[in-house]
Write a structure and sequence with these properties.
The complex is a heterodimer of chains A (158) and B (165). Chain A is 28% helix and 20% strand. Chain A has 158 residues and is an alpha/beta fold. Chain A has a six-stranded mixed β-sheet, with helices on one face. In chain B, helix 2 packs parallel to helix 3. The longest helix of chain B is centred in the first third of the chain and has 17 residues. Classes of the chains: A alpha/beta (158), B alpha/beta (165).
Chain lengths: 158, 165
């Protein structure tokens, strides 16, 4: 009886389509990723507004202050008194002086004495925070030499 | 001259793909895990110079526009005012504020009113979202036809804070 010879050499899968797709995905994620918003704290529910547009010129130096409520997983407030989310701590506005002084010292050490006039304080305050406390926060910053302020809001769909 | 054909010249050179695929997958996983879909955020600049009282009078031809936000103890808006005019406390009140500001400045981007300032006088308890809404309506209006923002007043300042109720 005759036996047929079977080609035992390894059959190579065509990798080209997979590599194409993987590169497409990689490109998509690289473009979609936004490292700018790393300072944005998701616990703060910003007010929404149509006129809130990302600034055309990014401030040279900025200090981001996230001001909101400690919330449970379902979004309900854990604590009725809003606090500043500062380096994994919850700091009440009245007790922020030491931290602001530290921020100022670090900025001055890194960029010189005059830097404080150029620093923009970005206030990311929760939509339900009492305005009086936001004004108190601004006053604290002014007492520490900060003079430029921006209020943050989420861009709303038109 | 006779050219001799090398034995291996026509054979296919196999580039090892495995290391490249490894790295590409690592990159892909890194970017996938780091992707956060967040709505874009925008800024409203406010004018708060140090050592200048909030109610300091400036040498301008036009008087400052005073917008008041009165609220109850829970921070809900009770009354929105422009000067002494009561504009209401609903969403339409903010649209009325926008229309009134336009009346005061004449037309968007009017250079004669570039120095005009809006002073926001909000109650201590008033929720911050109402203040942002008022700032937005004083700053301008989004025109759906041109898809552009018509700018009204650029300078916004706060009145001295009220005491809690």
């Amino acid at each position: 009886m005759k036996t047929r010879k079977i080609d035992m050499s390894l059959s190579e899968a065509d990798m080209t389509p997979m590599i194409d797709i993987v590169f497409q995905l990689l490109t998509f994620f690289m473009i979609a990723i936004n490292f700018e918003n790393t300072k944005a704290d998701e616990r703060v529910k910003l007010p929404r507004d149509m006129l809130a547009k990302p600034p055309e010129v990014k401030p040279e130096h900025e200090l981001v202050l996230n001001f909101g409520f400690e919330r449970n997983e379902d979004g309900s407030k854990k604590n009725a008194i809003p606090t500043i989310f500062y380096n994994d701590r919850y700091v009440e506005v009245g007790q922020l002086t030491a931290d602001l002084e530290q921020e100022k010292r670090v900025m001055e050490a890194l960029h010189g004495k005059e830097v404080i006039d150029k620093v923009t304080v970005l206030i990311r305050a929760d939509s339900e925070v009492p305005t009086g406390l936001v004004q108190q926060l601004i006053k604290k910053c002014q007492d520490n030499g900060f003079s430029k302020f921006s209020l943050r809001a989420t861009a709303e769909e038109k | 001259m006779k050219l001799t054909k090398g034995k291996d010249s026509s054979s296919k050179v196999d580039v090892p793909m495995a290391p490249m695929i490894d790295i590409v997958f690592q990159l892909l996983i890194f970017f996938m895990l780091n992707l956060k879909i967040i709505a874009p955020e925008g800024n409203f600049n406010i004018n708060l110079p140090i050592n200048a009282p909030a109610n300091a009078q400036q040498d301008v031809a036009l008087p400052d526009i005073k917008v008041g936000l009165r609220s109850d103890r829970d921070g809900n808006l009770v009354q929105l005012t422009l000067g002494s005019n009561n504009l209401g406390n609903d969403n339409a009140a903010f649209d009325r504020l926008n229309a009134e500001i336009l009346k005061l400045i004449g037309r968007p981007g009017n250079p004669a009113t570039a120095q005009i300032e809006v002073e926001l006088d909000a109650d201590y308890e008033c929720q911050y979202k109402y203040v942002v809404k008022a700032i937005s309506r004083c700053t301008g209006r989004f025109d759906p036809q041109t898809q552009q923002i018509a700018r009204y007043v650029e300078k916004i300042k706060f009145a001295p804070p009220h005491k809690p109720k």
